[in-house]
Amino acid sequence: MGKTFAVIGDPIDHSLSPNIHSAVFRELNLDCSYIAYRIPKGELKEGIDGLKKIKIEGFNVTIPHKIEMMKYLDKIDESCSLIGAVNTVVNMDGILKGYNTDMDGFLEPFKKKKLNIVDTKVLLLGAGGAARAIVAGFAKEKAKSITIANRTLENANNLSEFSKKIGLSATGIKIEDVNNSVKDYDIIVNATSVGLKNEPSPISLEGINEKTIVYDIVYMPMNTDFIKKAKEKGAIIIFGYEMLLGQAARAFEIWHNMEAPYNAMKKALFGGF
Predict the structure, then answer these.
(1) Is 66 a catalytic residue?
(2) Which one of 66, 75, 144, 197 is the catalytic residue?
(3) Which residues lie across from 44 on neighbouring strands?
(4) 215-243 pLDDT, tens per residue?
């Protein structure tokens, strides 16, 4: 009897997860399938009951359910409780355990490329969905400080309070006040959705150099304006797809207790673009 996995959310048709995981199942000859399952906002409880009925082995959780899903978990791992959201669930005979792979997924490209985070000054654009996990990652890897720039100052301030609570010195500012301070940072991360629709970069990258690490978590399109501007300055680039692959690999490891075939995942992802 094969095992079934899924991704739940709404909308769900743009999800690249089915491509990535199905390719890996083929690569490793695993008797598993991975489906996209649309659960509209407000129907999560029924949706979860349905998944339990078909004895789902595990599932990924995307917008809008990442926070509400916490209510239906029997167990949570520490990444989950720290970030306050879940994106990967394992079903052990009806006992649901939640994980959050955002932090590990975000950090994975730094590890793969052997890039240093210790004692760096970080500029984070955006204080939404993935931002908490990103802050948690920088805290864990001992960055020196983080500046959180956001359209709404209140959200930036809330996130910087969270950052200080977990031991990372932080300041919140409005995104338009970044101006020419970009040159003072070692790492600049775009965690806003700016770039999804090919909009211009949310900030100017004037003054950065080939030592600056520039990371965009938007993965479609691959070369956002933010990334193009960073390339012009010869900066070290991390693409959004690298975080996506890091997350998928982590989910795979959680579900199957074995190392994910990273290259097969990467090939599948690029086939999906």
Answers:
(1) yes
(2) 66
(3) none
(4) 999 988 899 999 999 999 999 999 999 99
